[in-house]
Amino acid sequence: MNKKIKTEAVDHLFDAILTLNNPEECYKFFEDVCTINELMSLSQRYEVAKMLREGKTYLEIAEKTGASTATISRVNRSLNYGSDGYDMVFSRLKVEGPDPD
Fold it and tell me: N or C: where does the chain have the smaller number of CB atoms within 10 Å of the terminal CB?
């Protein structure tokens, strides 16, 4: 865990997020907490990570999500060298890996 983000304020935010029960509540909360651009950036990064785990190419990801290659590379670095947060969520949501040929 990155000690730079581990603060009491971040703990409070995560506690608040953990009280949300469904997508509608998430929409209400995140629309108040984030700007539209911040929320769209977060969702774009998540989609990029998902597509990378599905074995998509940078070109396919850029075309579908509009993400820059720098963003795709940053997300890829998180997938490979981060805290495994994406993979934890993907396993819980049963996100599929690349199709074996």
Answer: C
φ, ψ (nearest 5 deg) of residue 94: 60, 45
Report in angstroms the alpha-carbon separations of 15 from 2, 8, 10, 34, 90: 18, 10, 8, 16, 21
56/50 Cα distance (integer angstroms): 9
Q: Are residues 44 and 75 in the same domain?
A: yes
Distance from CA of residue 86 to its chain's centroid?
A: 6
pLDDT tens digits, 43-66: 999 999 999 999 999 999 999 999
Contact 72, 62 (CB under 8 A): yes
- CATH number of the domain enclosing 69: 1.10.1270.10
**Using an 8 Å Cβ cutoff, are 75 and 45 in contact?**
yes
The answer on 24 and 2 residing in a single domain is: yes
Expressed as residue numbers, the domain containing 61 is 36-100
